[in-house]
Write a structure and sequence with these properties.
233 residues; mainly alpha; 2 domains; two-stranded antiparallel sheet; 11 helices
């Protein structure tokens, strides 16, 4: 599969038309959006906020189109998925998060999360050829950021609101987890080493649980770490 992840430096925006977004006002007032969000928290109808946050969706889908040309056939799906995420957010706004971040940023993160899941589940998306990548780089353009990963990267927790590293400012953590999931475990023991659930175990504890020696665990960790370094070079 191919993994698409829109990063902060993917700033190119492509204009597009969509009936659900045609009347969106490009210039938005984030202060007004936050006021609307707090009114919704206090019990107001979320409809006005949902309509206003379409400005966020218009910009977000434009960024996907501008930086991921292969996503163009999925405009309808991106708009639908992003709008669904925004509606879910407005129906249950996390008050503690709203106290720290603007509703625009929260909505952007949620919509991006939903759109990326949808795009990454579409197996017809494919990476540009190495020749195309090098041509773009030679012209001073960004390469098309598509990475080969395992299906496990696309699994999400039952409570989808439980994992939003970007919302918490943990973009670096998210990137590390993405690379870890790109590694190729040789067997179930490697999978345990890579599983965050086992990260708090010592080599001796993990060795006892796996039925091998601590020295063997350390060798495996070194091999997996070298894989990690090759990917991130």
């Amino acid at each position: 599969m191919n993994y698409i992840h829109l990063k902060h430096y993917h700033t190119k925006v492509q204009n597009f038309d969509h009936p659900l977004l045609d009347d969106v006002i490009k210039s938005y007032n984030r202060g007004k959006l936050n006021t609307l969000a707090w009114q919704v928290v206090e019990g107001e109808d979320p409809e006005e906020l949902v309509m206003a946050l379409r400005s966020c969706l218009k910009l977000l889908v434009g960024r996907f189109l501008g930086n991921w040309p292969e996503s163009a056939p999925y405009v309808d799906d991106m708009v639908s998925e992003g709008l669904s995420e925004i509606v879910r957010l407005c129906n249950d706004i996390p008050e503690d998060l709203l106290a720290k971040k603007s509703i625009f940023k929260i909505a952007d993160s949620r919509a991006q999360y939903g759109i990326e899941k949808m795009l990454n589940n579409s197996r017809s998306l494919s990476s540009a050829s190495p020749r195309t990548q090098m041509t773009r780089i030679g012209r001073g353009e960004d390469p098309l950021y598509v990475q080969s990963v395992s299906d496990t990267l696309l699994s999400t927790p039952e409570d989808e609101t439980a994992f939003h590293p970007v919302e918490d400012g943990d973009e670096k953590i998210r990137e590390i987890l993405e690379v870890i999931r790109m590694l190729k475990p040789a067997d179930e023991i490697d999978e345990k080493i890579l599983d965050p659930l086992y990260w708090d175990m010592s080599d001796a504890e993990l060795a006892m649980k796996s039925g091998i020696s601590p020295q063997a665990i350390r060798k495996r960790k070194l091999r997996l770490h070298n894989q990690f370094l090759r990917i991130t070079e």
